[in-house]
Write a structure and sequence with these properties.
The complex is a heterodimer of chains A (about 350) and B (about 325).
Chain A lengths: L1 E6 L5 H25 L4 H13 L2 H26 L7 H16 L7 H30 L3 H20 L35 H18 L1 H11 L1 H6 L4 H28 L10 H11 L4 H25 L4 H22 E6 L10
Antiparallel strand pairs in A: 1-2
Helix pairs in contact in A: 1-2, 1-13, 2-3, 2-12, 3-7, 3-10, 3-11, 3-12, 4-5, 4-6, 4-10, 4-11, 5-10, 7-8, 7-10, 7-12, 8-10, 11-12, 11-13, 12-13
Chain B lengths: L1 H4 L4 H26 L7 H17 L4 H25 L4 H23 L26 H6 L3 H19 L1 H11 L1 H6 L4 H27 L11 H11 L4 H25 L5 H20 L18
Helix pairs in contact in B: 2-7, 2-10, 2-11, 2-12, 3-4, 3-5, 3-10, 3-11, 4-5, 4-10, 7-8, 7-12, 8-10, 11-12, 11-13, 12-13
The chains are: A mainly alpha (about 350), B mainly alpha (about 325).
Chain lengths: ~350, ~325
Amino acid sequence: MRISLQPRNDVSLNARIIISVIAALAAFALVAVPVSFAGVSPLTAYWLMFKGSFGSMFAFSETLTRATPLVLTGLAAAIAFRAKLWNIGAEGQLYAGALAAVGVGSGLLSLPGPLLIPAIILAGIIAGGLLMIVPALLKLRFGADEVVVTLLLNFIVILFVQMLIEGPIKDPLALGWPQSVPLADAAAFPKLFARMRVHGGLIIGLVAALILWITVSKTVLGFEIRAVGENKPAARFAGVPVNATVLKVALISGGLAGLAGVSEVAGVKGYLSADLSPGFGYSGIVVAMLAGLHPLGVVLAALFVAAVFVGADSMSRATGVSNYLADLVVALSLLCVLVGGFFLRYRLKFERGISPLQAGE
Amino acid sequence: MEILEILLTVNFWAAAIRIATPLIFGVLGALLCERAGVLNLGIEGIFTAGAMAGWMAVWMGCGLWTGVLVAALAGAIFGLLHAILTVVLGLSQHVSGIGITLLATSMGYFTYRTALPNVSTPPRIVPFQPLDIPVLSDIPFIGPVLFQQTALTLLAFVLVGVVAWLLYRTPLGLALRAVGDNPSSVEAQGLSVRGLRIGAVIAGSSLMALGGAFLTMSAFDAFFFGMVNGRGWICIALVVFASWQPGKALLGALLFGAFDAFQIRLQTEVGAFVPGQVFLMMPYLLSILALVLVARKADYPRSLLVPWFKGQR
């Protein structure tokens, strides 16, 4: 028996979906080991996670609330990775967007409600987009690796936010807690259901996914992004404006992450604090990879990742197993889907015959 | 004037070297991986895993050096995983590295929380103590700066020499450098490209883990969440700054340590007028600046990020 690798040319949508589902299942299978070490039966833990994320209307609302920023950061990573622009800075861009939303929406501009919400959304998109333009320009102009720059910018932005919420924009009524002045009530996103936290940001995320899907599959820009991502010299040769495309992708990607920040401030918290995001930017990378960088897939993948986090919190309260379990599942899903990508690109072929190894026997 | 006088104190230089130590380990590790053609963005997580594993081993009753070995082993395991994904399967080094960071970090945190479910203050160990080497430690100025550090700091300095010797003075080093530049030439010599790359990533990852172990076993005596705080990413920037050379890597880490030690002291001088976060931002801004300054003329290993398959040109 002899095993060889053969490249595949045709990768169907179904195959991609199956690979992602298998990757998620494999992650759960692997995490069963540490769960057992923590002294709980994995099946019990997973059942509690499922109940905690989908078991009731309230649980489902929590999952959707958690999925909202993940849709947006997932889209941010998906569009950037398609162009091979490695934006690992969604976390910082999220905070930049949130900061802009608070800056515009907390009384600086006295706009009526229907205008205030579009104003903070626009401000957040611009702030996030501009923050991502910096590493994109440094890459194009100086050849500085955008991975490192975006990663380091995350730390800088969060420190900048801490500085502001302990200083100029600190809420004097917050009993000493470092948090910003609250957003005006008129700027808050409407809730979708009574007594549930899920809010209008979800609709924005779904619309963004739809627009992005149309953009990447049906427009010239979408073609240019794919061309730049697949082969820069060839794209340049074919007349694609490579640098302009990279900058556009940077703006869109950063803008989407900034929008996630607006959504968290205006939809959930109502103010800005340094713990606004428990790593939504980094989880967005996993979401994008699980989605195979497909904008509509991002919605499903975000729902999955959100369910893992919400479910793990609930499971943790019931069993005492650390909720870092969720981070483990998510990290392993990423690695498993990466391995799955290998099997999408290559077909294992089993040939009858004598392998060189067996020849001596 | 007072500010410049800081530069003449023993305390300042001793602190600079202390701050540089984890970076020396990290930069050397990243350098080994990248010289062989593999970017290892798992570094941030491997730091965390090393910090946790080394500390946990000592906390459970092992000796300090056993703890160091455990940390290195933890690094090696994540290195092996990264090597399988990027060298054997040829998958995206960027995504695999981020995945390793997420995995190693969450494994470190999960293990810590599982072993110590209900602690409010992190338990402490007895960490490495400053050395007292006869004669050397008593030299004025240089003695306290260089030789009253802990054994791990001296190990970092020794490793710079070892890595430089290995890379430039041994056949293995020649092959390692070639494998990151022109893997086909290595293959033509009958050496295993994959074997060399896998070995380099494992060794490099162990070094990264030692950087983490220094944090919990020498700089501090306990494990905290978020204690690595971007040090791994800073190392990735420093490797470019150092043009992938061990000597320059040492210099870069020391310069960085000196800047950081200086800003901490500056903070006590002018902290009343400038918010503390401005100073905390400095290391990250400095890293970006260093990267931008050298990036254009940086001589990247030519096969960095390029997977290699047998029989492929």
